[in-house]
Amino acid sequence: MTNDPKGMAPSSKLSSSDLSEIDVMGIDGQASWLDGGFTWLARLFAFCTVAVLGWMTWVIFQQALPAIREYGLEFLWSQDWSIGDLVFGALPYLHGTVVSSTIALLLAIPIGLAVALVTSENFLPAWVRSPLAFIVELIAAIPSVIIGLWGIFVLIPFLLPIQLWLFNTLNWIPLFSTEPFGPGMLVAGVILAIMILPTMAAISRDVLLAIPQELRSASGALGATRWETIFRVMLPAAIPGLLGAATLALGRALGETMAVTMVIGNSPQISPSLLNLAYTIPAVLANEFGEALDDLHIGALMYLALILFALTLAVNVFAVLLVQTVGSASQSATVYRGR
User: What torsion do the CA atoms of 164, 170, 174, 177 make, to the nearest 10 degrees?
Assistant: First the structure.
């Protein structure tokens, strides 16, 4: 420290020589060790997660080996499923899983976006927006079996007249070419849409709320209306996050078991009609795994589980790549406009 020339108290300023003598590791050394320990602990948990995932895959693969050796890749496009004859094929279950999830996603995306916009913008007072968002998210807390029972006693009787009208009026279209029985592919798609709606709406709302307010203000200052701001500024800026929300919702739809099992009809057939009965991979696993005795039957069920696992993983990998591609394109477009 330096003294004041007039004999006053020492100055609080430090010279360069004083700074060089400070032990910068005296206090921060412990924090550095803690940071390093936390980093390695986080890495350990990450590696453990990957290891558990690999272990689960290996166990499922081992159990599926009898069916893999027996059928090979032909299992994917075979339509036969007879427990007595020990003949198994995955195509009807793949069809039911993919089609029902697609219906759910087509219904949940627009409704989820609408809910996200209503609860994130000032269309409604704040005392209405927050409870509305909470109620929508609360659907995710309802047990799947309860939603399935609601589907049996409420949704099927409600949709049956609509399905009959579609059949009587539009039966020349293959999508509505079979007479409805009540349960079926369309009902399963609707109930799946209800179940994935909280995921789609909640994540989309968070993404829209994360968009800087300056974008809205700048768009309004340029003369854009509210809807022009939403469709030309906010939604394009939120596309990567919205794609992530849709992917998570699709993953939930692909793996849903109990509610779909109760309303889809559980008939292993392939039909272009959405009014017909169907079957999904999670449903057949839930219905038959507890009673499977033969090794080939168990292997076929585990083969289905392995296919479902691979399908879900492929969807998530594709979504990550798509989000990264769209995000990079959006950033490039923003930089280009800035120039």
Answer: 30
Q: What are the extents of the domains in the chain? A: 67-338
How many other C-beta atoms lie within 10 A of the C-beta of residue 83? 15
pLDDT at res. 6: 47
Q: Compute CA distances 45 → 5, 33, 59, 223, whole Å.
A: 60, 18, 21, 51
Residue 2 reports pLDDT greater than 60: no
229-244 pLDDT, tens digit per residue, is 888 888 888 888 898 8
Query: Is the model's pTM score more than 0.70?
Result: yes
**CATH 3.30.420.40 is held by the domain 67-338:** no
For residue 82, what are the β-bridge partners? 87
DSSP class of 278: B
Q: CB-based contacts of 156: which residues, under 8 Å, 6+ apart?
A: 182, 183, 187, 263
